[in-house]
Write a structure and sequence with these properties.
The complex is a heterodimer of chains A (about 180) and B (about 625).
Chain A (H helix, E strand, L loop, with lengths): L4 H4 L10 H15 L9 H22 L1 H11 L14 H19 L3 H28 L3 H31 L1
Helix pairs in contact in A: 2-3, 3-4, 4-7, 5-6, 5-7, 6-7
Chain B lengths: L20 E6 L3 E8 L2 E4 L9 E2 L1 E4 L5 E3 L1 H5 L8 E3 L20 E5 L2 E6 L2 E3 L1 H20 L5 E6 L5 H13 L4 E6 H13 L3 E8 L4 E9 L2 E10 L4 H15 L7 H17 L5 E7 L5 E7 H26 L8 E5 L6 H11 L12 H13 L9 E3 L6 E5 L3 E6 L7 E7 L9 E7 L9 E9 L11 E7 L5 E7 L7 E6 L5 H12 L3 H30 L5 H18 L4 H14 L1 H25 L1
The chains are: A mainly alpha (about 180), B alpha+beta (about 625).
């Protein structure tokens, strides 16, 4: 099957997708392809099942997460959003990054969980703004240059988000 | 239009016979077997009406093994040869265990502990297989026939080594494993189907030796695990142990012999169970040197002794909630599983954390086996009203060792199974033809803090300048949560050889040796067995392919169909000969002949499933 992830789930390749349709079609494909359905089947059927169920999981995770979805849409356009040769970020965003990192380090040092939780909420709001920009840039204007910028920012925010969560986890473990 | 010709799924020409399949809860303290009869999941009792089989194995002499209640009675009298809570040792090495208070004589082999007994050195895999054999016998007697297979439950937080050891034990017991199923997921199946629940549920499962917490989303028969966490070395046993230490301290007892240790631990367990419904427990016993112990433990003292054990379950619970991205008010219900959740202080702590009364309407000892039986019934292919699908996750991240003893994660915890990830490597020296890869499991940054799963040697890399070779290593974790690895040199497309050196457990040869030893067979028996196995494999593929043809032969041209039928006829003939090798080869030929058909069938069924949705939305 040489389909892309959107085709697999019967969706058009857009940033703004119906998450409910994605989820329900993912479940339908798993209902047909999951290895549990092929426990007594022939080895060829078992292999097909393993491959498709694995692909469906991978595709679902890619499309469900907005940053991964944007990155994948750009890949379909032949653009590597996080290629090693392509890491330039606008100066204001770099400044912003440094601020977030400083806040994170400070909260870690002072063991301030509520500061970390505030930072999480800030990241969520930033992510929402970027996502609405991406919807316009990719779906309406096909402006892939701006979309590449926004995608990189979103990936970075995801990274900070998981670092904050990790810090909270570590702090809770020492309580 | 083709869209309207949706064929009945699972419709087949051959009439279906009910296949005997069971669910087995292989527990730390007790084990159970259950099956679905007349649409209902039931635990199978022994001839005395007992549902629980104590997970205790007693080696009476070199060739006699006893399992269950009678073995349990021997644990104080013959502690060295009576193994309790063997599940704690599955897939574990000496460095993983605190053995200071245990009455066994330990050694170590292939990274797993072994126990010296009267019947020789026994691995946890062998000891567990005795429990599984007893359950298999019980089931076959009760059901009046041979089992086609079993679903065996494991703690969700079991790592690859512990899962593999469980599967090995089943193989050694002669059980066909349909699936390794996570205990909390099994409980959710039993609970969810019983209550027709929808929404997000937390399964809090504190067993004899393990703690799991899983968060599941239940919707229209799909049980999707959102996150799981736990502690595979925390359970009811630890509560006994706290009382045991309190006894030693309060009665000012010096370290005892194995017999006294066992006796005091049994008394501790009795006191713990008594305190579930009483405010104080009297503990009295006579030690081997004639010293009489007589103490009273109050509920308040017990709660104080064990408070931090209960707190220890909340940290994995918080992690699972965070991984699932959920808040306390998103949770529709909390289900209590495992005998240890009978302790009132645990129910109270869980109720306080989740701000709701936990659900305890199913027997916490039986719910896992009941759920496993439901899944076994479906997997074995028995028709069921329940259209049930379980989407489970990998509990611990898989990673690779990189420079400086650091891990690089390849597959993250809580990824839905099955999952595969490819990683590219290159050579760092000119002409390098081999490299070694170390796979570990765990969340920590240092390799030494994670569990070593396997070391792979990649050989046969074509000699090139440093950095030119591109070796693509693919890690696949199947629906049992077990890892397999394959590798390919992509610039020349040479398949690199993989030499697998498991860091733990049994090699394929060791299993074969043990199987041989257990059958104690002569060469001719071995041949007969191999022939029988080959015929079973041939019968299975012939049945599967004829069912596939009956359902979907429309996807094949006449020539394609004839080619497959010709191979089927050939295999059917060879199957009747005495040549096991030839049968295996013909199975493989038929398998290859059906690969394209299998792909076409999968495509067709997926298109049908998605097309069904479009039809619905038009009608709406």
């Amino acid at each position: 099957m040489s389909q892309n992830h959107f085709e697999l789930f019967g969706l058009s390749p857009k940033f703004n997708i119906e998450l409910a349709t994605l989820e329900s079609n993912y479940r339908k494909i798993q209902s047909e392809s999951h290895p549990d359905r092929f426990v007594t089947a022939s080895p060829a059927d078992k292999l097909q099942s393993l491959q498709l169920a694995t692909l469906a999981n991978e595709a679902y995770q890619t499309l469900k997460n907005p940053a991964n979805r944007a990155k994948y849409l750009l890949e379909l356009q032949g653009i590597e959003a996080i290629a090693e040769t392509n890491t330039a970020m606008p100066l204001d965003f770099l400044m912003q990054q440094m601020e977030w990192r400083e806040t994170l380090e400070e909260a870690k040092a002072t063991k301030d969980i509520s500061a970390l939780e505030n930072l999480l909420r800030e990241m969520q709001q930033e992510a929402k703004l970027l996502q609405s920009e991406l919807g316009l840039q990719i779906d309406d204007k096909q402006d892939y240059v701006s979309a590449t910028d926004a995608t990189r920012k979103l990936i970075f925010i995801d990274k900070v988000y998981s670092d904050i969560n990790k810090a909270i986890e570590q702090l809770e473990a020492t309580l | 239009m083709a869209l309207l010709q949706i064929s009945e799924p699972g419709m087949s020409a051959a009439p279906h016979q009910h296949k005997l399949a069971v669910g087995i809860d292989l527990g730390t303290t007790n084990s159970l077997v259950a099956t679905v009869r007349s649409g209902l999941s039931n635990v199978l009792n022994d001839e005395h009406g007992h549902a629980l089989l104590p997970s205790v194995v007693h080696y009476l002499d070199e060739s006699t093994v006893d399992v269950g209640f009678s073995a349990q009675k021997q644990q104080n009298l013959d502690p060295h040869n009576t193994i309790v809570s063997v599940k704690r040792f599955m897939g574990r090495g000496l460095k993983d265990l605190d053995i200071s208070q245990l009455p066994y004589r330990f050694t170590e082999a292939s990274g797993m502990v072994q126990i010296e007994t009267r019947a020789g050195i026994k691995s946890p895999v062998e000891i567990s297989s005795e429990i599984l054999k007893a359950l298999k016998t019980r089931a076959e007697l009760a059901l009046g026939g041979e089992l086609v297979g079993a679903v065996i439950t494991v703690p969700a937080y079991f790592d690859d080594a512990q899962r593999q050891a469980t599967k090995d034990a089943a193989r050694l017991a002669g059980i066909n494993v349909l699936r390794l199923l996570n205990e909390p997921t099994a409980a959710a199946v039993a609970y969810g189907l019983d209550n027709a629940s929808e929404g997000v549920y937390v399964i809090y499962d504190l067993g004899g030796g393990t703690f799991d917490v899983s968060i599941l989303k239940l919707s229209k028969g799909v049980f999707e695990v959102l996150a799981t966490n736990g502690d595979s070395a925390l359970g009811g046993d630890d509560f006994d142990h706290r009382i045991f230490c309190w006894l030693l301290e309060t009665a000012k007892l010096t370290p005892r012999n194995a017999h006294d240790t066992r006796l005091l631990l049994s008394k501790a367990r009795e006191a713990k169970e008594w305190l579930t419904e009483h405010s104080e427990a009297n503990i009295s016993c006579l030690l081997s040197d004639g010293e009489f112990v007589n103490l009273t433990l109050s509920t308040d003292e017990f709660i104080a002794l064990t408070a931090n054990l209960i707190q220890k379950t909340l940290s994995p619970t918080r992690k699972a909630m965070r991984d699932a991205g959920l808040n306390i008010d998103d949770i529709n219900g909390v289900v209590m599983v495992g005998g240890a959740t009978r302790m009132p202080q645990i129910r109270k702590t869980v109720a306080e954390y989740f701000k709701q009364t936990p659900l305890t309407n199913l027997d916490p000892d039986k719910v896992v086996a009941l759920g496993a039986a439901i899944q076994a019934n479906i997997l074995a292919g028995n028709k069921s009203d329940e259209d049930l699908l379980l989407l489970d996750v990998i509990p611990l991240s898989l990673g690779l060792e990189t420079y400086g003893g650091l891990t690089e994660k390849v597959i993250h915890r809580n990824s839905t199974l099955p999952v595969a990830r490819a990683q590219e490597f290159t050579t760092y020296k000119d002409g390098q033809t081999a490299m070694s890869i170390h796979v570990v499991q765990g969340e920590r940054e240092l390799v030494s803090d994670c569990r070593s799963l396997a070391r792979f040697e990649l050989r046969g890399i074509p000699p090139m300048v440093a950095g030119a070779a591109r070796i693509r290593v693919t890690f696949t974790v199947d629906a049992d949560g077990l890892l397999s690895v394959s590798a390919r040199e992509t610039s020349t497309n040479v398949e690199a050889n993989i030499a697998v050196k498991p860091s733990y457990g049994l090699s394929e040869d060791e299993i074969t040796d043990m199987l041989k030893a257990s059958f104690n067979s002569a060469e001719s028996d071995k041949k007969a067995r191999m022939l029988a196995e080959a015929r079973v494999a041939a019968g299975a593929i012939l049945e599967a392919v004829s069912m596939a043809l009956a359902a979907d032969s429309g996807l094949l041209s006449i020539e394609e169909k004839q080619a497959i039928e010709a191979e089927m006829q050939r295999l059917a003939l060879i199957k009747e000969t005495q040549d096991a090798d030839a049968i295996h080869k013909a199975v493989e030929v038929l398998n290859q002949a059906t690969e394209a058909f299998a792909a076409a069938r999968m495509n067709a069924s997926v298109s049908r499933a998605l097309a069904g949705k479009k039809l619905d939305s038009i009608n709406m």
